[in-house]
Amino acid sequence: MRAYRRPLVVPRQEARRYQADEAREGAHFAERLPGGGLGMNLDGEVTFVTAATAELLGTSASALIGALPWDVLPWLSDLIYEDSYRRALFTRLPTSFTALRPPDVWLSFRLYPGASGISVRIRRTVAPAEKVLSATPTPTAETADQEAVLTPASDEAPTRVGSLYHLMQLATVLSQAVKVRDIVNIVCSPVMSAFDAESIALLSVDGTRLRVLGHRGLTEEASRILDDHPLDAATPAARCVAEQRALFFTSPKEMDHAFPGWSVRSHLSAFALMPLTALGRPVGCVAFGYRAPHQFGSGYRTLFTSLSGLLAQALDRAQLYDAQQQLARRVQDLLLPTALPDIPGLEVASRYRSATRGVEIGGDFYDLIRLDSGCAAAIGDVQGHNVTAAALMGQVRTAVHATAGARPDEVLTRTNRLLTDLDAGLFTSCLYAHIDFAAHRALLATAGHPPPLLLDAEGQVTILDVPPGPLLGIEPGALYTSAETPLPPGSALLLYTDGLVETPGTDIDASLAELADHLRWAAASPPDVIADRLLRQAPAAAGTDDVALLLIRRQDGHP
């Protein structure tokens, strides 16, 4: 084995040394170039910056690394500069703009996009004759080195930008949007920037009315005029949807002829509205506004038409998703307890987080039941992440409630018989605890559920060993065994589902030990604070499983 170690280690060390030398040489190379430069990732965060760049921008390199430039530099906080970045990222075409660093330093920025981010070249320049709030893509390498300022794009610019590649990029972005909020964000940022628009609005058909889902650059009066009006109202958006045709107004005169006073109210000189239709029915419209008269050449109209089809499908899909989400949340709220009972002598905290994408509903459940001699607590996990699992979860909760007060093993035995009779085809894990205040103890039984944790009054944590029983719903004649543990005042019991501890590829004993450590570290905190901390530490933060937990603490000074 020794013969193989040396050849494997040495090349790796040499590779690291070579990479370090290469990184230093790259940094030296960038520093020798005139002006400054920085690198940005796809989220807009600065990943590389030269010393010359920091000096040009009037800040330190450490302040820029890992940050968004427009967050660090107030004079770059105008949305036009952020839009220039998004335009370059979205169109994959070089973009340039000029900005004033107070009090009197003018800087030119040229953005060169790529698959992994954007490279930015920064130079001093002269003050432009007029600052126009519109960034122009730099079309060729020859023009890339010329000092350029922000100038309005021509009416035919989208003919080039609106190529097949551009539409494919739009389709990709919209296909990844899930919620209506995602569509609004896309419309109000990259789409608006790609069309050189100075205002944009996305409207949706809601029954017989039109409602603004989101807008940017519109005056408050214009937003009110467009929002919450019947489809037969005398507004531009209502006409666009009612007639199911695009409307183009190239000048204030055209706008006011069709809708008197619209140019004054909107502060716009040109307006374009596109209907959004999916599966033969209207779903809304999108409106683009311009401060100066605009001719809307064939390039614009072609791209507008293509965009409207993509947006309509994405919006229709997102609205269906949001409706499913709302229904799922309603079902979940009905099946889980809205509030746990207030039981004297107990402090209780509960948490639930679903990991299902698409329909946020799962089969995890918890419950706390008041009894004459104390209380009962239950927690469980129904197989699956759908409405069927949630419905079965409701039946399990009902069965536990109906038998609460009996010994824990009897509660699980009776609940198991009910589930096997239902033959739902889904299996359920469950842990049931009967807390006896007078005897200062807890009786527990489990049906294939993770073991509870006991936190004593001294802050020590024990993983309780409860005799395991089979999952509910498998064996009709399954029997379960109860176990007893002391639960004096000042101690607490933690019940949870496997989403709080299980990580693929990780030993469950190690995960339980880690959970015990987290509980021990938070022992002195109130139950709500402990529950929040444990939930933040859950490995399901990446969306791998549902999480439910129930923390019950006996208060000091109570019998």
TrEMBL record:
One GO MF term attached to the UniProt entry: kinase activity
Catalytic activity: O-phospho-L-seryl-[protein] + H2O = L-seryl-[protein] + phosphate
Regions annotated as coiled coil: none
Stored Gene3D superfamilies: 3.30.450.40, PAS domain (3.30.450.20), PPM-type phosphatase domain (3.60.40.10)
SMART domains noted in UniProt: PP2C_SIG
CDD domains reported for this sequence: PAS (cd00130)
Record carries keyword Manganese: yes
Domain PPM-type phosphatase: 343-554
EC number(s) recorded for this UniProt protein: 3.1.3.16
Keywords linked to the UniProt accession: ATP-binding, Hydrolase, Kinase, Magnesium, Manganese, Metal-binding, Nucleotide-binding, Phosphoprotein, Protein phosphatase, Transferase
Pfam families: GAF_2 (PF13185), SpoIIE (PF07228)
Function: Primarily acts as an independent SigF regulator that is sensitive to the osmosensory signal, mediating the cross talk of PknD with the SigF regulon. Possesses both phosphatase and kinase activities. The kinase domain functions as a classic anti-sigma factor-like kinase to phosphorylate the anti-anti-sigma factor domain at the canonical regulatory site, and the phosphatase domain antagonizes this activity.
Name by which UniProt lists this protein: protein-serine/threonine phosphatase
Taxonomic path: Bacteria, Bacillati, Actinomycetota, Actinomycetes, Kitasatosporales
